[in-house]
Amino acid sequence: MSHVLVTGASGFIGSALVAALAARGDRVTGIDVAVGPGLAALAQRHAGVAAHVCEITEWASLAEIVRRDPPDAVLHCAAVVGVPASVLAPHRTFDVNLGGSLTLFEVARLFGVRRIVHMSSEETYGDFQADRIDESHPQNPVMAYGISKLAVEHLGRTFGTLYGLEVINLRTCWVYGPGLPRPRVPKTFVDAAVEGRAFHLPWGASMAVDHTYIDDVVAGVLGALDHPSHPFDAYNLGSGQAATLAEIVAIVRDLVPGADISVGEGAFEHSLPGASVPASRKGALIVDRARKVFGYTPRFDIRDGLRAYIEATRAGR
Ligand SMILES: NC(=O)c1ccc[n+]([C@@H]2O[C@H](COP(=O)([O-])OP(=O)(O)OC[C@H]3O[C@@H](n4cnc5c(N)ncnc54)[C@H](O)[C@@H]3O)[C@@H](O)[C@H]2O)c1
Questions:
Q1: What's the gap in Å between 234 CA and the centre of ligand 1?
Q2: Which domains does the chain have, with CATH numbers?
Q3: Longest Cα separation, the chain
Q4: 114-143: per-residue pLDDT in tens?
Q5: Could you tell me if the CB of 181 is within 6 A of ligand 1?
């Protein structure tokens, strides 16, 4: 049994990780700017789960939590997440993603934490130059979100060189499943289909993105956390496939007969209040490195993942 600190523990991926760690008997300290209902319920259900309100950019608050009960490792999920959020709040994106990571790395090295697994992003690659890419693809992010995540990757390397802190970066793509908090595909399609509402996305039919089901991401993160010795500090963590939005709409329609959902032609754009931002070119993440090093094997192709997501949405999860 080990003790793991999860930052962003009230969030989509963070709370799923807390649940998985608690289920296998690890002790967990979950921190977030607010203790959400999911995290609170986990802390109530499992004696080994503690939940604390903590602003990750605030040194004193974070240092006190870690000093009192130093973890063996950290799963670092706290962030301003996604291109739209980062366009709306670029300063906050750098304060939290880069400044918060810096505070975390400093606290970790001062209190003897050896390993941090950082949730990085495919946005660090910028426009994909091929339909499928591995970790050697150039990293030329174009939005504040991806730039902040790439900066964290570099900062982690600096802490490795200077202090021996091991920071492992997992580059995930568009994660989906029960609890996805953002009004993003495929949630928008699935929610409308299950609720019997019409939903038409005006653009993006040919946009191909690696959509990764939450259970596969959780398995991959735990695989990286547990692996005794990492020969690399960055891994793609995707499904290895990239469905187009037109294919996703067709699968949801097939799984929910009568679903009144559709997607229009043209390039995908991120919707913002009163505006939209063109998306980078995407594709599939090649996951051979994670497979070879720590046995990562995604189990959900897009159809299986959407089926599981629709079932969970119908069940109100
Ligand atoms: N969901 C995806 O598709 C995806 C894809 C690639 C990478 N990621 C990365 O995975 C991680 C988790 O993403 P998610 O989808 O669970 O997002 P999320 O928004 O659900 O969770 C992020 C959590 O961080 C918390 N947080 C934000 N600012 C904070 C601060 N200053 N101090 C403490 N906590 C703070 C939020 O309250 C939230 O609970 C993020 O680092 C994100 O960049 C997610």
A1: 18
A2: 3-176+211-241+286-294 (3.40.50.720), 187-208+242-284+302-314 (3.90.25)
A3: 59
A4: 999 999 999 999 999 999 999 999 999 999
A5: yes
- Output 258-261 pairs: Cβ under 8 A, ≥24 positions apart: 258/196, 259/189, 259/192, 259/193, 260/192, 260/193, 260/196, 260/197, 260/198, 260/199, 261/189, 261/192, 261/193, 261/198, 261/199, 261/200
CA of 260 to the centre of ligand 1 (A): 31
Query: From the CB of residue 105, how many other CB atoms can be counted at a distance below 10 Å?
Result: 25
**34: which strand partners?**
none
Please work out whether the CB of residue 77 comes within 6 Å of at least one atom of ligand 1.
yes
Ligand 1 centroid distance, CA of 170 (Å): 13
What does the alpha-carbon distance between residue 107 and residue 86 come to, in Å, rounded to a whole number? Answer: 25
CA 186 to chain centroid:
15
- Residues 149-174: tens digit of each pLDDT: 999 999 999 999 999 999 999 999 99
Give nearest CA residue, ligand 1 atom 34: 32
Give 73's strand partners.
4, 115
Q: How far is 217 from 219, CA to CA, in rounded Å?
A: 5
Using CA atoms, how far apart are residues 300 and 192, in angstroms rounded to an integer? 22
pTM of the predicted model as reported, rounded to 2 decimal places: 0.98
* 169 touches 67 (CB < 8 A): no
Reduced to 3 states (helix: H, G, I; strand: E, B; else coil), residue 297 is coil
